[in-house]
Request: fold
Amino acid sequence: MTYYTSTDKYDFDLFVIGAGSGGVRASRIASSHGARVGIAECSDLGGTCVNLGCVPKKLFAYGADFGFGFSDAKGYGWDVPEISFDWPTLLQNKDKEINRLNRIYEGILKKNNVELFCGTAEFVDNHTLKIGDKTVTADKILIATGGTPNKLAIHGAEHSLVSDDMFHLEEWPGKVAIIGGGYIAVEFAHIFHGMGCEVDILHKGSMILRGFDEDLRIKLCKAMRDEGINIHLDGCPSKIVKHGDGFDHNYCLHSDAGHKIECDMILAAIGRSPNTECLQLEKAGVELTKSGSIKINDDYQTSEGNIYAIGDVTDRINLTPVAIAQGHVLADNLFGPQTGREVDYENIPTAVFSHPPIGTVGMTECQAKEKGIDFDIYNTEFTPLIHQLSCRAEKTFMKLIVEKKTDKVIGLHILGRDAPEMLQGFAVAIKAGATKSDFDRTIPIHPTSAEELVTMRTPKVPAD
Reply:
């Protein structure tokens, strides 16, 4: 059943720039309501997540985990012969999977009668776009172009790579230097280290993973160092020197704190910026924020009333599921039978596929203090059962933040094996307003690590 009645004033009722997860969802839902929809994409369908982000990075993380798994298997009686890693095989198999997903996205668009334009879209005016040698008009336009990795601006920066480059490396490095301390940096540290590389991280801050709970940050840093990853804090990159013949490694990364890191490859994981450069936004009157993201209101509307923006290009909560939710809600509100739908941004779960991985939802301890909430902390740290025989010195850490007044669990943070998988189910409980008493009444599944989340009974660290 369709709800929206088109007019013939424009070529399309909605034209979407960017066929990533958010843009494709918005186009599909709008079309299902009866809108005539077009979409433009200058690269592979599926956006960053499918092609240069979440999906291939998770496949690489699985590949790295096998490196640890072969070692762990010995404690379980497996006679593991000498192992070797072949990067081209993983790269080829990754490409096959990404190509499969690209075809699925193409099928979604075709099935929903969304007309696809291959090329870069740029504004002519607020209702007109130019894509190559084609010009289209639309009543409403949605910008969903995502973000792009930031590049270094130091002497020798041309010798560094960004995260996009990691998915098409022709040669496997022996020693890698990673600049940055966010989730991209620690995830690629896991990938390279698990696949046999020597890894150094150079981070300008005093601790990795800014914005995450302090206990998780400290414990992950220790775990990574215990595994053999060299983490250098409080140092900004100052220059990159390329070596000539006669050196063991190709480059030397210098910092303003005096670090000199010899390496074969340098990855700059120093954040991402909204992808707006080619859009010619000034021709449509679309305003940007001081940071360069597209300025929107709570309804995703830009400074030009008929133009909207969602996802990373707005630089709010840069997560693929958030962009998908935004695209769905926007299409419903613009073309569907119901209006006023909103995305609920409270208690959004997230994960970091480091080693060990992180799963987190709700407030950190610092955030709870800043809000003046009176709370208790429950935490536990233990060696998971699998490592009792593998003899790997890897701990699992769990932390609950409970508001005293309501008994609600307002924060849950896990560092350890399978943390992201555990977190998803508990995120539903916290979203539903579960209390510590609800956790306590839940019968645990034994033996699992997750049972610890419902068996903590005594506050371990009194709130200040």
User: Anything to note?
Assistant: The mean pLDDT is 96. The chain has three domains: 12-149+274-335, 157-270, 350-454. DSSP finds eleven helices and 21 strands in the chain. The domain at 12-149+274-335 is CATH 3.50.50.60 (FAD/NAD(P)-binding domain).
